[in-house]
Amino acid sequence: QVQLVESGGGLVQPGGSLRLSCAASGGIFSRYDMGWYRQAPGEERELVATITSGGYTNYADSVKGRFTISRDNAKNTVYLQMNSLKFEDTAVYYCKRFPGPTPWSRDYWGQGTQVTVSS
Questions:
Q1: How confident is the model at residue 101 (pLDDT cuts 50, 70, 90)?
Q2: Residue 8 three-state SS
Q3: Strands, DSSP E only, in 33-112?
């Protein structure tokens, strides 16, 4: 049973920082690409950042230079360091484990953690 549990969200002022964590259980964490997505009220869920099993990263243009995704395979955890936060970063942030290479593999999502940027 795969479980993803996000933590680290909260209320922060513009320009502030937060670090989100996503602890994974079930499966061999190091084998899977991982990602962070977010969904603001009334908006579709959007990609924030991804990190492959090999450590290669990709970012949405809106967060490049401000957010950093990383992973610690020994702790089965993926992180999202968010700096210089803006009002428009307010959203529920979700962790995702991408499907593996087998045809029957599927993706998994966490329950989400709220990030609110407000003065």
A1: confident
A2: coil
A3: 34-39, 46-51, 57-59, 67-72, 77-82, 91-97, 108-109
